[in-house]
Design a protein that fits this description.
The protein is an alpha+beta fold and 440 residues long. It has 2 domains: 5-96, Nucleic acid-binding proteins (OB fold (Dihydrolipoamide Acetyltransferase, E2P), Beta Barrel); 120-152 and 238-428, 2-Layer Sandwich (BirA Bifunctional Protein, domain 2). It contains 13 helices and 18 strands. It has helices at 54-61, 111-116, 118-121, 125-147, 186-196, 232-253, 255-260, 266-273, 281-290, 310-320, 374-383, 392-399, 412-420, and strands spanning 15-28, 31-37, 42-48, 68-77, 85-96, 151-152, 158-159, 171-174, 177-181, 198-206, 219-228, 277-280, 324-327, 340-342, 348-350, 352-357, 362-369, 405-411. It has an 8-stranded mixed beta sheet with strand order 6-10-11-18-17-16-13-12, with helices on both faces. Strands 1-2-3-5-4 form a 5-stranded mixed β-barrel. The longest helix is centred in the N-terminal third of the chain and has 23 residues, at 125-147. It is elongated. It starts with 14 loop residues before the first strand and ends in a 20-residue tail after the last helix. The structure holds 4-amino-1,4-dioxobutan-2-aminium adenosine-5'-monophosphate and magnesium ion.
């Protein structure tokens, strides 16, 4: 491998040549401080006029922000530097001189400006650190599933039916007929487990949600896991071990990135070793009300059957300071495929759980045990006025050798937002697609 900034620890005392970009610089008299990045990291290169041929020194003096350059120098340990290293420059050349008007100067810019220039903003330290953690989370999830005996099972993005809420579908013209962009690969994964036992998919999914919040994207990446012969308790156990594993992997491998993001990791370190909290939906609603965890003037008679609001999820995360499973939502506010049961109050509930991350992470996972009975599932599809013929293939999973099974979906960007401590979800994907943003 060619040398890189990420390997400086093993290159101390050696003279190396690196190519990259000049992200900042300043000079004082005969010394020139070049802030240099090569994609793998950032390091300061210090040049002294005395050590350079005149034309190289002149090239440094006329350098512009974000020009591509090649540097040569001696690697030195430098405990005071953020990277821990410094390079004593001995040669310098410009690959391509950038015009002087690089739009993202070293001053405060509003988020709209930064995202209008996302192609360039990606070069800055915050996106760099955030998207490297995203890569680690992705890698960690894939590793976890392979170690657990799952196989990756890619599901189609163009789908003839809806998996979740039918109001949140993007439709496309498919040779003259309507098709929808996938909201989740789950229904196909359910067919997959009847062949492979345990599968996961990982890919972009689409939600035409009219939500303009810091938690919602129109295009997001979701990992759906599906497991034959698993009930909801086993399902939650897999989720908890997976979340612990990926947080631990980020803590073990991404300290430099977490430092750039100024992330306080106290609670992340805690959750790796502590059991997650379990509450039923009814308990959660009662606690929210009795402890006055959210500002609410009045509670109506059926408040405890409502969906969880963003404020309620955040309040529960703040109370427990650990991830919280909220179980058994009223069935009517959840998806058609979930297994139902009737509770002591006579409320029909779903055998499901959302996993709420603390520190304003909100819901990062939605999962459930699936209705395995052919007649019950068919009746639900009819009751919801879904086009039954389009679900015939899906019902085959229950018709031919049905089994108890469960699964879940984790939103990659919600998870990365929580772990990195970014305020807005748009920071966690390279080119966000949202209600009010579709460019660049
Ligand atoms: O809770 P959801 O809608 O669950 C499903 O789609 C199931 N079919 C998953 C399954 O059981 N296989 O979505 C799962 C997760 C959410 O918990 C959230 O993290 C993320 O996907 N998510 C979004 N993230 C960002 N923006 C949006 N608009 C999101 N919608 C869902
Ligand atoms: Mg959900």
């Amino acid at each position: 491998m060619t040398p890189s900034i990420s390997q400086l620890a093993s290159l101390v005392g050696q003279t190396i040549t690196l190519s990259g970009w000049a992200y900042n610089f300043r000079s004082s008299g005969k010394i020139f401080f070049l802030q240099f990045r090569d994609g793998s990291g950032r390091v300061q290169v210090v040049y002294s006029a005395a050590d350079l041929p005149a034309e190289q020194w002149d090239a440094l003096k006329s350098l512009t922000l974000e020009s591509s350059v090649t540097i040569t120098g001696l690697v030195k340990a430098e405990p005071r530097a953020p990277s821990g290293f410094e390079i004593q420059g001995t040669a310098f050349s410009v690959i391509a001189l950038a015009p002087e008007d690089y739009p993202i100067a070293n001053k405060e810019h509003g988020p709209e400006f930064l995202f209008d220039n996302r192609d360039l903003y990606l070069r800055s330290a915050t996106p760099w650190a955030t998207l490297r953690i995203r890569d680690r989370v992705f890698f960690s999830i894939e590793q976890f599933f392979h170690e657990e005996g799952f196989i990756r099972f890619d599901t189609p993005i163009l789908q003839p039916t809806s998996c979740e809420d039918t109001t949140q579908l993007f439709s496309v013209d498919y040779y003259g007929n309507p098709m929808y962009l996938s909201q989740s690969g789950q229904l196909y994964s359910e067919a997959g487990i009847m062949s492979f036992g345990k599968v996961y998919d990982f890919g972009p999914v689409f939600r035409a949600e009219k939500s303009k919040t810091r938690h919602h994207l129109s295009e997001l990446w979701m990992m759906d896991a599906e497991m034959a012969f698993h009930d909801q308790a086993m399902n939650m156990d897999v989720q908890e071990r997976m979340v612990k594993r990926l947080v631990k992997d980020v803590l073990d491998n991404c300290q430099a990135e977490l430092k750039i993001l100024e992330r306080d990791t106290t609670l992340l370190e805690r959750l790796v070793n502590e059991p997650f909290v379990h509450l039923t939906h009814a308990e959660a609603k009662r606690i929210l009300k009795e402890e006055g965890l959210i500002e609410k003037e009045t509670y109506d008679d059926t408040y405890w059957q409502d969906d969880m609001s963003t404020e309620e999820e955040i309040a529960l995360g703040n109370k427990y300071q650990l991830p919280v499973f909220i179980e058994n939502y009223p069935a009517e506010i959840k998806s058609f495929y979930m297994k139902k049961f009737t509770d002591e109050q006579g409320i029909v509930r779903a055998r499901c759980a959302d996993l709420i991350a603390p520190e304003e992470g909100r819901e990062i996972i939605g999962g459930s045990q699936r209705e395995a009975n052919y007649d019950a599932l068919k009746a639900e599809i009819i009751a919801r006025n879904y086009p039954l013929a389009e679900y015939e293939w899906y019902l085959n999973t229950r018709k031919y050798g049905t089994v108890e099974h469960s699964g879940f979906g984790i939103g990659l960007e919600r998870t990365v937002r929580w772990i990195t401590g970014n305020h807005h979800i748009r920071e966690t994907i390279a080119f966000p697609r949202m209600l009010n943003r579709s460019t660049p």
